[in-house]
Amino acid sequence: MNRDHLKILVIEDNPGDFILVEDFLQEQIKIPVIKRASNFKSAMLELLTPDAEFDIVLLDITLPDKAGEPLIEAIIKACPDAPVIVLTGYADFAFSVKSLSLGVADYLLKDELTSLSLYKSIIYSSERRRQSDELAASQLKYSELFQLSPLPMWVFDLETLRFLDVNDAAVAHYGYSREEFFAMTIHDIRPASEVMAVDKIISDQRGAKQFVKQGIFIHRKKNGETIQVDIQSNAVEYQGREAKIILANDITERLKYINEIETQNKTLREISWMQSHIIRAPLSRIMGLVPLIQDIKENVINAPEELTQMLEYLMISALELDEVIKSITDKTQTGSDDV
To answer: What CATH number belongs to 7-145?
Structure first.
């Protein structure tokens, strides 16, 4: 909002009061664009015009064709984007409180009005509206990120441990309806053996404001299935309550895969040991027998040449088998380390 150039609708049936308000506005604002509506009907025509974009609405609550609460409700409904400031000649404290509860930005008495008090009310009301709009946009963005997350998320009350909000992914993954979640605490999605550990972690982290990666926990679905989840959390204020927002990543299948790989590695190490010791032992004996047979052959007169060739083939085959075993052992050990 440009404070030097404001577009203002003054809904006022008294010409004298309108002139006074107009003077006050022109005194404080460099380039005010002021429009007047003298009754409810003309006010609605102004507000419902397609290109009507008022920065502020000043409303006298006693118009000829509508007054009081019905008037306030109708005007606020017609201009949801502009703050409405009530100007009245009647000092009714109870009604002023009621009008604020209806959505009025401020309530000013005409007899106490000055150019400065009116200007301050306009600026403060506009700033409050801006902050309110930013907060609403932030909440909408949070809601979209929360609900569209593919991973289960929830918010729980740090005092009661009750679920305050859950996203669609949590409902789908855990099997509880949103209404069932709201009737539960975070204890209800954990085995009894986990409850004390959870309470200790919450107690230790109470008051922490930073993002926390808590670790891996066991959760229980509605159907009784237990899962292992990697939990990350952050402290938030939710609807005025001290709370925590949780992101739960189910890593049950990942851990199962890792366990299977570790089992496979163990099997490969056993195979490697067997190749290195059990198979190599008889091979070593064969390789040790070859020289003995050669010694016997040298002491035999006219040993057939076929025996010499057989010994050579036996030694070559033993050496080749030894190389094959070494190669297999090296590969299984390397594969075990890589996996």
So the answer is: 3.40.50.2300
